[in-house]
Amino acid sequence: MKQRIKSATVLLPALIGLTLLVALFSVRYGAVQLSLEEVFQSLRHAFAGTESTALNERIFMEIRLPRVLLCLLVGASLAVGGVLLQGLFRNPIVEPGLVGTSCGAAFGAALYYALGATFHFNTGPWTLPLAACVGAICATFLVFVLAQSKRSGKSTIVTLLLTGIAINALFLSGVGFLSYIARDPQARSIVFWNLGTLSGANWNSVVIVGISTIGCILIALRYAKHLNALMMGEQEAQFLGVNIRKLKWRILLVNVILVAVATAFVGVISFVGLIVPHLLRILKGSDHRFLIVNSAIMGGLLLTAADLLARMALRPAELPIGIVTSIVGVPIFIFLLRKKNYFF
Amino acid sequence: MLKVEHIAYHIGQKALLEDFSADFPPGQLHLILGPNGAGKSTLIKLLSGELPSKQGKVLYENKSITTHSLPELATRRAVLSQNIDLSFPMKVHEVVMMGRYPHFRSHPTGVDFTAIEEAMNFFDIASFRDREYLTLSGGEKQRVHFARVLAQIIQSEHSGCRYLFLDEPLTYLDVYYQFQFMQLLRKLLKEYPLVVVGVVHDLNLAAKFADQLVLLHQGKLLAKGPVHEVLTEKNIEMAYRLSPLIHHSKKGTFLFFE
């Protein structure tokens, strides 16, 4: 495999082509099948600024297209988050949610579901993403504060990692408690949210996740070379002029924004952030500039494909996307791990 | 020229290094000797700027290292440690290119490629430039890192001295590699304006290759100067609590322990 895909100049166009293909499939198929003509027709209408009244064209513009775009963006966010955290922790088994981010988001969402119905507070379209985002940021902040050493005020990577695991466990049990005391429709909602769903996609979420994803990826690219140097350890990176303290906080901050915003809109989707950087390392190598760019595309590709599968498998019902990413991702992952050209 | 004036380092009440002053002129191989806990690593860390000295000054060409920023320092000073491993797979030439990171923003330029070619040729690793670093043997890995630190300090825009610090880089290597690297270091000193200061454990290796020795004992300077002045029976007995047989010949100084 390594021999076949010699350079990134082949891989990247191939990934982009495949992504476009899957995206095209994804906008066409679902509970209602759209023809290519209808797709192009509604795109023409959109560009001309005229609103179409045809039902299928509205399905495309208001449901399918934002959903596919959100898939691409969320996939990119999670995969790049995975690259950043794995690079920072120098550990290939790290997930972007590990510093508390996704479990915090899940807890925020669970609070919204469990208490919202009881106290009847205003449940506009922004309450849920906001609750999840606040939960994510609180949990991550808690991890950072608790991981700081009392003596030096610094936190080592290992302490951060272990504190993250502990806080994740705490917030997950919080989610468990809330779904235990919640009544049935709410309890089910909590479960569904924890498995991830893109059914709530609309243009607002596309714009917000889009700003966070693209902005954060551009910032992350500036630290690609620092993360490469970090592969040799903190000390060696420092000899190469990297300010470790600054790097650590910036990478963590970028990761939290990426994951918190994406999770806030679609729920907890695991495995994408873990598997995509791995696949790319096996295909090509570990240069972080390459990993960030290609993970962004491949993450989007994977999530779009998973979402298509989630909608098609039990049509017209929809599977939670988290189930699909795990069922499809795990066998691929294990297969690749067992190939012998894998070094760590 | 590397000049050190009255540096010291304490942790709590314990002095790891006391009042150390010395000059390290370029073009010579300076090696630091001493038993475990004598302060060798502390000294090299202070010289390279990894640890900030609370007293005294470390001067690179009469400028204190505290006036250099971390990235700026990295363009003229390189440090090589022992046993460096990578957390993820990388190709050999990619690892050598890491040495150029202080010199470019996001993409390497022509001068960076020239530098890594020069460094890879010097340490004779160009033939396996496309191999995976993690599949190399210990000796090959250390050659890659020698090339990396060399690439870091050559082909730089500012003129003047470069500083290379070696923190026991030969510890896990066999005799063949230890000799080979020492010979390459001597060749390096002839070709580049370099101040090289290293820590080694092996007294005979130091006796054979060093121009100047620094012998530390319990955080204090015991002796410094050319080999025959430092490696005396009295100094060795004091530092290592062993009495050596010292044999001087045309081929150099050799130490034996009973």
Strand-helix topology:
The complex is a heterodimer of chains A (344) and B (258).
Chain A: H1 8-28, H2 36-48, H3 55-89, H4 101-119, H5 127-147, H6 157-181, H7 184-195, H8 203-222, H9 224-230, H10 234-239, H11 244-266, H12 272-283, H13 288-312, H14 321-338
Chain B: E1 2-11, E2 14-24, E3 29-33, H1 40-48, E4 55-60, E5 63-64, H2 70-73, E6 77-80, H3 92-98, H4 110-122, H5 138-153, E7 162-167, H6 175-191, E8 194-199, H7 203-209, E9 212-217, E10 220-225, H8 227-230, H9 233-240, E11 244-249, E12 252-257
Parallel strand pairs in B: 3-8, 3-9, 6-7, 7-8
Antiparallel strand pairs in B: 1-2, 1-4, 4-5, 9-10, 11-12
What is the compact description of this entry?
The complex is a heterodimer of chains A (344) and B (258). With 344 residues, chain A is mainly alpha-helical.
Oligomer: heterodimer
Strand content of the residues of chain A, in percent?
Answer: under 5%
Total DSSP helices of chain A: 14
CATH fourth-tier homologous superfamily of chain A:
ABC transporter involved in vitamin B12 uptake, BtuC
Chains forming the largest contact: A-B, 29 and 30 residues
